[in-house]
Amino acid sequence: MATSWQPAFGQTVTVATSGTPVAATTQPFDNTHTVIVYNSHATQVLFLNWQNDGTAITAVTGVTIPAATSLTLAIGAMSQRPGATDETLRFDSDGNATDGYVTYVQSASS
Question: Buried-most residue among 61, 66, 87, 94 (CB within 10 A)?
Fold first, then answer.
């Protein structure tokens, strides 16, 4: 991914069907150091994980974001992350039509 000169970038990720992970349309930038995810659903749980396939994400295999809460995840800029992989940031839910509001916070360099 490229470097973003925006201090923050936001997008909505919608999990249409439980058990079918959805990749974030825009993946974290090279200089993204923090990912903030807000689960706007009143009752459904949102899950996230880095993976390279369509395997369902659950509380056992991913990070759980309870209903109507947020998660702040410090991932470090690209130069601080472990080796590059082909995995992408993906979301799943325990119900259908669950929205996650995702914000990436960038540093001035990668």
Answer: 94
